[in-house]
Every structure is written in structure tokens, then in C-alpha cells.
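sanity check this:
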Amino acid sequence: MPISPEEVLKIANLARLQIKQDEVEQYATDLSSIINLVEQMNEVDTKDILPMAHPLDVTQRLREDRVTEENQRNKFQSIAPSVEKGLYLVPKVIE
């Protein structure tokens, strides 16, 4: 599906992009190539192909789940402007 230079200018206008007049033809060619590639990919039968979580067969390196910081809640709440029952009180901003 080829894209015309007029369509490129219309798309650029809608997207608020400024394209130089001498580059419009190249954009039309590039966009047409991209759309042709997508059309080719859509023609491939993938109904028996399972989706992949990652293109490479790798496993996630996991770190040990352990606490690395001490609880400083009381310290931080002692310097807060307003606290009640362990919660920070903030001014109402939505009516």
C-alpha cells in the first residue's frame, strides 16, 4: 500500500510535525516500506505459534528477597508536619 506525498503532508499536519518539502518523497517511500513489511508479517500463519515472553531463551536472575533497610517510619514521621495514627495528614486538594 503505497503512501503518497500528499498523505505524508496530511499526516505531518495532524501530528504537528514540520517536514521539509524536499524530504516528503523520502518519508513517503519509507512509510510505504514499513506498511508493506507489516502487511507481509500479517500474512504469516501464526495460529499454532505460542507467544514468547522474551526472544531469547534466558531466565531471569533473581536476588534473594530480604530486607536491606531498617524501618525508619518513626524517624520520618517525627519530622512530618502532621501525623495521626501512623498516617501522614495532607491538605485536601480535591473537592
